[in-house]
Amino acid sequence: MQAHGALDARHRPETCHANDLKRPRGARPTERFQTALRSYRVLRDLTPEQIQNFMDSYLIYSLDWADEGKMVATLGKDYENVVGQKLADYYCVLNHLCALGELEKMYIPPAMDLDQNLTVNQILYERQICEELQLPANNARVLELGCGRGRVAAHISSLTSARITGLNIDADQIASAQAFNTQQCLHNTFVRADFNSLPLPFESASFDAFYQIQAFSLAKDHDALCRELFRLLKPGARLSLLDWVSLEAYNPDNAHHTQLMTRIKPLIGAVGTPTPASLAASLEKAGFVMLDSSNVSINGLQAPLIERADGFFRNLKRFVLGGVKFGLLPGHFRQLFERLTKDCDAFVEADRQGLCTTSWRWLAVKPDTMGKEMDGEEGKEGWGWGCWWFLGLGLVLVMVSG
């Protein structure tokens, strides 16, 4: 397996130069201000129904795909569709709350460089995705599930010239992604769909690569989804996943551990709780060959970045509460920001104890031909044993017939 950071410079996209890697840049201040202003206006104009639907959506994070009985008891037999609707209710508000700060892409990245801010660490991780996918030089087609507002797709497309197809369940985010794509003169496409409703609306073997960032906990059946990705990817295509997992140190019989998990899942928007091994097994059962499975944060810790994000939004909450108190901001802002900033301390504690992380990365490949993508030496040294077997059989037949 390839260690983090060891990818060969030959595989770096031509548009992603070494000098650029030393000086990553986030959005310009004017761009960030305009984005935040647009999101503020959306949040200001939320209806009472939208606010209530957002608050009610948190119910699904007290459940888990693994406990279907509780899902049915809480949400009814049609629980899959109910979860899908609540996810849409959740993200149509959350994406605007996150856009007020450094979380417009809606993920805490792996800790890649602790001398840099959260946005730059996102950029660094996305550049790593470009490196490890080893995309074709021209006309690469890449699929992203859970594409959010299309900002990650825009960045990866700008680095590689690939055309990204993004899929998301929330119409509001799809509209934002399409508008940003047009503004940036990119050629990405965005589709509103639920990746729990398979098959996905794409042809077999139509994509050169796949990536996703912290979306797979929303998938009910990892085995089925990985089989679907295997169908959609071309032979030789690579797949990169970054997601939330519980780690070996987590003990479900430890009351404090389970309490931490119960508090964390609503904060990060996780329904399922995979492990590194469970998702790797789903990939391998689908036919993928694992190349790497590891925590890509420095020392396996995201806590420094989590604390920075928490500090920003707590300071923003103080400003918001003051604005509400003096009638400068709508009253429902209090409710939204109280919910947004709840329980981040649990996330930090669990991360530092090694109970869970949202920076576990799986890298896999769809074999090009039988055994071609394996790292063994058989295919590199000429004939394999099968060729020698057939040659020997042929010689025996010649001798017998003679």
From TrEMBL:
One of its GO terms (cellular component) is endoplasmic reticulum. It comes from Cercospora zeae-maydis SCOH1-5. Residues 1-28 are annotated as: Disordered. Residues 143-239 form the Methyltransferase type domain. Transmembrane segments: none annotated. Residues 7-28 have a biased composition (Basic and acidic residues). This is Methyltransferase type 11 domain-containing protein. The keyword Transferase applies. GO terms for biological process: ergosterol biosynthetic process. The lineage of its organism: Eukaryota, Fungi, Dikarya, Ascomycota, Pezizomycotina. Keywords: Transferase. Pfam families: Methyltransf_11 (PF08241). One of its GO terms (molecular function) is sterol 24-C-methyltransferase activity. The keyword Transferase applies.
